[in-house]
Amino acid sequence: MRGIDEKNNSQFSRNETRFARFNIGWKPRSTLFPSLATRKMPGVTVKDVNQQEFVRALSAFLKKSGKLKIPDWVDLVKLGKHKELAPSDENWYYIRAASTVRHLYLRGGAGVGSMTKIYGSRQRNGVCPAHYSVGSKNVARKVLQSLELLKMVEKDPNGGRRLTAQGTRDLDRIAGQVAAANKKTIVQ
């Protein structure tokens, strides 16, 4: 009977497998997908580094570049109706822009409404119970418009905003710098 190996008395021989017709042979990915062989993946992405250090480094990069358009009212505005005071940090606009770009990198397709939900918080109502309150829509809109002028963000046809290729490249480069700085401090 075909398929019986007399030596081992098993149903299938060594060269035959139960799924012989499906056995097409193994090939490396580079031969199946030639674009994978030529493309280099970044060594470090935004997801691989400490997020607070990344936002600090990106906000310093945005401030140093001097290209981020800042509105005149940044020192007067509250960041939502749940806040009592304006932000105490004078560089808060750069930090908010860096944080917004990071959120777009991680989520993608986020617009003004989703940014107000991200930056919302608890609103205290005196003796009444506290409730959730969204962040300022004007601040979110102006930050996204400023990032569009830098060509880091573009409008998504499905709604919202998304990162451009240049923006992704810049963020990965800064993440690599943050990872290298962390590696130096760990080694020393």
Element string (H = helix, E = strand):
HHHHHEEHEEH
Inertia-based shape? globular
Main sheet strand line-up: 1-2
Determine the structural class based on helices, strands and strand pairing: mainly alpha
In CATH, the topology is named: Arc Repressor Mutant, subunit A
Biggest sheet statistics: 2 strands, antiparallel
The second-level CATH architecture is Orthogonal Bundle
For the terminal residues, how far apart are their CA atoms? 71 Å
Range of strand content: 5-15%
Structure, described:
The protein is mostly helical and 188 residues long. The chain has one domain: Winged helix-like DNA-binding domain superfamily/Winged helix DNA-binding domain (Arc Repressor Mutant, subunit A), CATH 1.10.10. The strands form two sheets. The chain has a two-stranded antiparallel sheet with strand order 1-2. Strands 3-4 form a two-stranded antiparallel sheet. A hairpin with a 2-residue loop joins β1 and β2. α3 packs across α4. The longest helix is centred in the C-terminal third of the chain and has 23 residues. GO terms for molecular function: RNA binding; structural constituent of ribosome.
Keywords, separated by commas or semicolons:
ribosomal protein, Ribosomal_eS19_CS, Arc Repressor Mutant, subunit A, mainly alpha, RNA binding, 188 residues, 7 helices, Small ribosomal subunit protein eS19, two-stranded antiparallel sheet, two-stranded antiparallel ribbon, 4 strands, structural constituent of ribosome
